[in-house]
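Bench notes, bay 3.
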Amino acid sequence: MRDRAALLALSAALTLPGLGAASLWDVDEGVNAQAAREMREADSWVVPTFNYELRTAKPVLLYWLQRASYAALGVSEWSARLPSAAAGCLAVLLVYGLARRMFGRATGLLAGVALASAPQFAVLARAATPDATLLFFTALTYLAFWAGHRGGGRGWWLPTAAACGLAVLTKGPVGVALPGAVIALYFAWNRELGRLLDRRAAAAGLVFLLVAGPWYALVAVETRGEWVRAFVGTENLNRFLSPMEGHRGPVWFYPAAVLGMFAPWSVFLVPAVWYGVKGARRAPAPSVLGTQHPSHITQPDPVPADVRAHRFLLCWAGVYLAFFSAAATKLPNYVFPLYPALAVLTARFLVRWREGAVAVPRWVMPAAAAGVLLVGVGVAGGLLYADRVFPGVGAFALLGLVPVLGAGVMAWRLRRGDRGGVVAAAAAAAVLLVGAAAAAVPVLDRQKAPRDLVRESGAGDPGRDVRVAALGWFQPSVVFYTGREVERLPTAEAAARFLAVPTPGYLFVPAAVWERLAAAVPGPHRVAARHFDFLKNCDVVVVTNAP
C-alpha cells in the first residue's frame, strides 16, 4: 500500500500542478473539450459533435469522462484535462502491479517512476485527449491477462475482454486488435497457441460485445451508419494506408520518437532490450511458476516465470512498434501504449544490474551517463532554439542543468562502485526535469491566440446574442472559448455579408487577409483584438460590427 501511495503521490505531483493554467492546445484538445461540452448541452450520451456537426474521429468514452468532470467541476481547461490526469496516475499503479507480479517489488517501483517521469507521459497525462485513457485500459488489459494466465490458468478471458471493450470505446479497433496480436504472438512464442482454443473465448467475445457493442450500435442507428462508415473507413483504414493531415514519416520515425520522449530513461533502452531478449531466450527448464510469489502458484510450467515475462514485454513492445511503423500516418502519441513495456524492461535491467545479477560491458553504464549528459545539452539547446518562436522560453534552458548534474552524480557514484546511487541519480534527474519543465508552459501559452482573442474581443460573452465566423484561419478551441458555433466562411464576399448583418458578429481572420479586405467591407466595423498565433505563424485579428 505504501508503494502505491508513493507512486500515486509522485504521478499526481508531476501531473496535476498547473493542469488548467494553459489554454487548450489545438487541434485535438480544442476538439475533444468542445465535443464533450456539446454532448452535455444536448444531453446526449450517444452522438458526438464538434462545432455542432457530427464528429467521427474518435469513439465516445473520453467525452463521457469529460462530461462527468464538467458536471462536477464546471467547464474549464482543468476539468477537460482531469480525466487524462486521473487515467495517467492510475496507469502508473497498474504498471507497478504488473511489474511487481513479473519481477518483484523493486522492479515495480522503478517501472512506475520511469513511466511517470517520461516526457511523453507528462505531456499526454496533461492533455484533453484519449491517449492517457487508452494507456490505462491497455495496462488494465495486460495486467488482467498476466494475472489470469499464469500456470495454465484460464481466468484471464473475461476481464481481459472487458478491458479491451473499454479500450475500443476509447480509441477504436486498436484497443482489441493489438492486444489480441500481442497475446497470440506470446502464446506462439511459448508454443501454446492451443490455449486460444478455449470455450471461454465465446464468453469473452460476449463480454466484449456487451461492453463496447451497445454504444457502437446506438451511434450507427442514430446517424444511419454515417458515423461508423466514416470512423472505420476514414479514421482507421485510410489513416493506416495513407498519410493524413501531412503526418507522414520514415520507418525509423517511432524509434526516434521514443528516444526523445522516453528520455532520459531511453539511454538505458539498448541494454534493457538486449538483456530482455537474452532473458526471453533462456533455455526452458522445468520449474514452478511463481516461485518468488507463492500466492500465484497453480501448476508446474515448463517455461520459467522470468522468461515468460520477458517474452511478453517484448511481444507487447514489438507488436505496437511494428504496427504503427507500417501505418502511413504517423504521430508520436500513437505508440504511447508501448511505454509501460519499455518502463518495465528498463526497470528490470537496472534492478538486476544494481543487484549484480547481470554483467554488462564496462563501457555501458559510462555511456548511459554520457547519454544523460547529452539529454541535458539537448534540452538546453532545444529551448534556446525554441526562443525564436516562443520568446522567453530560452530562459528555461537552465533546465538542461538537471540532467547534466544527474549525469555528473551518475559518473561519480559509478566510479565509487555505488550502483544504487547511479540508478537513484538517473531517476532523480528524470523526475526533477519533468517536474520543473511544467514551469515553462505559461511562456509557451503566450503565443497561442484563441483564448486571448476571445477574451479581448468579447466574442465569448454569454450574456449577448452574437454570431462568430472565421475566414482563412480556424482553430477548434475558438469554438470552446466562444461557446458558440463558428461559421467557416469560404470567401471575402461571404465575410462582407457576415459583417453587414445587423446582429453583432465577430470575424476571426489573419491580419494580412483583413488588410486586403477591409476597404471592400461596407458598414461600420472595427478590430476588437489582435494576437500572434504560432501554429499558423501569423497575426490574427477579430473584426466586429458591434459598437
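Next record in the batch:
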Amino acid sequence: MFGKIKWIKNNEAIVEKNNDNIINSEDLMNIHVIFEAPNQRILGEVTEIDESGIKIRFLGEFLEDKYVSGILRKPLPSSTLRLINNQEQMQIFGTNNNDNLLAGNSPIYNCPIYFNINNCFSNHLAIFGNSGSGKSCGVARLVQNIFLNKNMLSYNANLFIFDAYGEYKTAFSKINEMNKYYNYKFITTNPVDQDDESLKIPIYLLNLDDWALLLQLSDHSQIPIIERTIKLSKIFAQNDENAKNYKNHLISKAILSVLFSNRTTASKKNEIFSIIEACHTDEYNFNTEIQGLGYTRKFSECFEIDSNGNFSESVLINDYVLSHLNDELESTKEPDKAFYTLKDFEKALEFTLISEGFQDNSKMYNEAIILKVRLHSIINSHIGTYFEYENYTTIENYISSLVVKNGNKSQIININLEDVDDIYAKVIVKILSRFIFEFSKHSKKRASIPFHIFLEEAHRYVQKDNDVFLLGYNIFDRIAKEGRKYGVLLNIISQRPVELSDTVISQISNFFIFKMTHPLDLEYIRKMLPNISDDVIEKQKSLQPGTCVAFGSAFKIPMIIRMELPNPMPYSSNCDVRNRWIPNEN
C-alpha cells in the first residue's frame, strides 16, 4: 500500500506509492497512517496525493497505549507505514463511556466520534459556519445528545440559550419526553403559547454598569449622573420621613442656588417654577400654603414681582426654604435592598438634575438631558415592559426563578429575543450574563453550579464595544477570562467571527467549524487560532451541510464530524418559496 519514505521535512513526509496498492488513491485522502519503528509510533494524515508520491502530515505520537498530540521527534527514515488499527482509532475517536459524549460520525471511517465532556464543556466553545451550513442543527444536535446520553443524568445542567430568532423552541420543547426529570423553559419578549413566559428583569438589580449600557452612555461625564440617580432611587424607595426630608432638602438647595445667582428676577422665577414642576412634594408645590406673620401665601404667589423688580415675599421665601435645608442629609447612605421602578428612577433623575453641580454645569446638564430623553423613550416603549418586575428579589432568587418552571428545575432555559432591536437585545444579554456571573462569583462553593451561556448570532452581542473605554471592561471579555474558574462557560455561535471580540476568541478552547467561504472570516480564523492549520482551513471550505471540522482540547486531532439531524429540528430552515408561491386552493 505504501512504499518507502522519500523524504521528511518540517512536519511532513513524502512516501512512494506502492503499485501493488489495492485501494484507489482517492480512498487514501484524509486517512490516518502510522509510521512504525522500534519504540516509535507516529500518527500522520494523508493530505495530498500526486505523481510524486503521497504527502503525509504528522499529527502526534502513541506512547504505549496513549495518544499524545504534537510531535517532538520525527519518524525514522526506515519506518514502515500502515493504516491505523481499531485500537489506535478508538484512542483518537473516543469510546462510549460515562466520561464521553457522542459528537457525531466520521464520514471517513463511518464510526462514531466521542469527546470528553469535561474537556469540552468545562471550557469556552465556539461554533462557526455560514448560513445554511447546518450550524443551528449542529447546536441543537449537540445539546440533544447531552440529554439523550444514557450514561448519565444531567439533572443539574443549566443551559441558558439566548435565541436571536426563536429557532430552538421546537428543538428542545419535548426534552421532558426524553426523560421525565428534564424540563425546558421558554422565556420570550413576545409570549404566544400557554407555556411561554414573559421576559421580566428587576430594574432595581441593575448596577451602574448596567444602566450605562441601557442608557447608551457615551461619555465619562454621564457616569456621576447615573451614579447619583441610583443612590437617590434607593433612598426615595424607602418612602419614609427621611426620604421626604431628603427630597425637600434637595429642592431647597436648588431654589437657594437660583435665588443667589446673578440671573434677573423674572429668570429666577421661571427657573424655580421649572424646579417645582419637575420635582414637587407636599411641602413644595405651587399650591403649598406658606405661613407668614398673621397671613398665608400660596407658594406660587410668593414669587410675584413688585415694582422694584424683586419678589414680593422674598423674606418669607428665604425663611421657608432654609427651614427645609438640612446638610446632614447629604451623608444619607442608600439601603442595600430597595425596590423601585423605571418611573421611580426617572423621578430620581429629575432630582439629580436639580442637584447642585448639575444645573449650573451646562455640559453635564446637556449630557443629563440626553439620558433623560433616552430613559423616557424606554419607559414609553415596549422595552420598558421587560423591566416591570412586581416584587423585590435578590440576584440569587432571580436566577432561581429563571431556572424553575412549575416547581421543577429546568435544564434548558431558552430566552427568545427576536422582537428586540439589536441595541437593546445586546443590553439584555449583557445584563443577564452579568447576573449569572455575579451569582456564580459569589457562590459559597466555587464552580459548584455550572452555567453554560449559548449566544446564538453572537456577533450581535460579543463585539468590540465601547464598554472597555467607558467602564473599563466588557462582561463577555470578563467571563471569557475569568468565567471558567467560577463555572460560567461561553458557547459562541456565529456566522461572522471577524466581528467578534478578539479577547473572547483568544480564550476559546474548542471549535466546531462548519462550512465558511467568506475570505475575511477565513483569514481571521487563520490568524486568531494558533492551533489551526492550513489543512483544516481547506477542509472546512468544502464541507457538506451538517458536517464540521472539530478541534481543540476535547479532541485528540482535528477531525471531520458528520452530525446527525436533530430530532425535533430547530426552526431554522429556508422559506419554502416554491410552495408559498402557489395560491391556497382552499
